[in-house]
Amino acid sequence: MNKLRNTKNESIIDEQRIDNWLFRSRIIKSRAKAQKIIFDGNIKINKIKISKSSAKIKVGDIITLNKINNIIIFSVESFANNRLSAKDAIKLYKEIKTI
Predict the structure, then answer these.
(1) Beta strands, E only, 25-92
(2) Contact 14, 5 (CB under 8 A)
(3) pLDDT value at position 68?
(4) Structure confidence by residue, pLDDT tens digits, 59-85
(5) How far apart are alpha carbons 56 and 76 in whole angstroms?
(6) CA-CA distance, 89 to 52, in Å (whole number)?
(7) Strands 56-58 and 11-17
């Protein structure tokens, strides 16, 4: 699921599944919808189209999301162990561009 690295009192996530990250960052409303969007070929990681929801992402990866009317490009800033509030979720990514 998540690749963890333990330090003294904290665990740091090094990588995470793309479907989990999309759900936890509140970009997509549910994990099932995230998996469908990925399966339909609407997600790219570092300009490479993926079709598996188990693809791993790391901090610094660029995620491209093709929606019906626009394309949104994100940079992965961090990960979360669970779904966050909207206020905290925006810290997981940086929106680079909306086309």
Answers:
(1) 43-45, 48-49, 56-58, 62-66, 71-76
(2) yes
(3) 83
(4) 999 999 998 889 999 999 999 999 999
(5) 12
(6) 23
(7) antiparallel
Cβ neighbours for 8, distance < 8 A, ≥ 6 positions apart:
none
Domain count, the chain: 1
Residue type, 27: I
Structure tokens at 12: 């740091």
**Cross-strand pairs, 25:** none
| 38-62: average pLDDT | 95
Indicate whether this model's pTM tops 0.90.
no
End-to-end CA distance of the chain, in Å?
32
Residue span of the structural domain in which 70 resides: 3-98
Q: Please name the helix (run of DSSP H) or strand (run of DSSP E) that holds residue 25, with its range, or none.
A: none
Which of 69, 67, 68, 64 minimizes the C-alpha distance to 95?
A: 64
